[in-house]
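FORM 7B: Structural annotation worksheet

SECTION A. Query
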Amino acid sequence: MAEKTVTRHAAGRVRLRRLLPRPHRVNRSLGGNLLVLLVLVAMGAFMILPMVYSVVNAFKPLEEFYIFPPRFIAINPTGNNFLDLLEMATGSWVPFSRYVFNSVFVSVVTTGLYLVISGMCAYVLSKHEFFGKRTLNQVVVLSMMFTSTIMFIPQYVLLSKLGMIDTMLVIIVPQLGSTMGVFLLKQTMDSFPPSIIESARMEGCSEMGICWRIVMPAVKPGWITLIIFTFQAVWNNTAGNMIFTESRKVLPTMLNQLATGNIARAGVGAAASLFVMIPPIVVFIVSQSNVLETMAHSGIKE
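SECTION B. Predicted structure
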């Protein structure tokens, strides 16, 4: 009797094993793996070459900028470009620390305000039902198709009417009107379970509490990615020709002014470019895992 029972269980396991889907094995040869690896290495090298070229140029002496044919590697690397940049920066009647403070202040304030506004808007669009929601979502997506170049003239007219020209608000206010943050956070919040939100409401939690104490911590990769993108955009923003007072200008504007004098400042310009791109790169490297997680779950692929 016991043997029949064991036999019956064994037969049942065999039938169950046949019904279950078999794991799919990737049939790829060693040559295929090597080909994929070579393609990935080539793409990575192609993407990193501009950054490496900027670093190399910062250490090139002036005479190597104009030799023909141009060379990728510096023959006689030097640090004089950074010394010249420091001398020009400290020789200005406005202290160099003032430009640094302006850039840090504008970047931090704009990033913080943009995160708050985008988070609240994304929460409403993702977890609330109201009239015109679908149309508003389409407007958000459509607005991302217009580049900042197209919007420069109407933006300038609007800021001029509001009396914001020659103030730091010309950098802060336009960034707050960007819909990229709303789209990014909404796509991330869409995967958050509505049942948790309903449970919080039944416990008496307010909508602001649900947004900032429950939903936003759960979508941490999304808003960290937004912080990186916003900080990079604001840090590199020179405000065009809308800030005239020297003491209100940001660091990239000052460095561009120093670099665009004549051909003798080519090395200074290369050093200034390297100096400006360091902070965004550092911020990205520190938080790159959150960026990749957001790209995988928010619908953004590039």
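SECTION C. Observations
The chain has a mean pLDDT of 80. The chain is about 70% helix and 0% strand.

SECTION D. Sign-off
Analyst initials: ____
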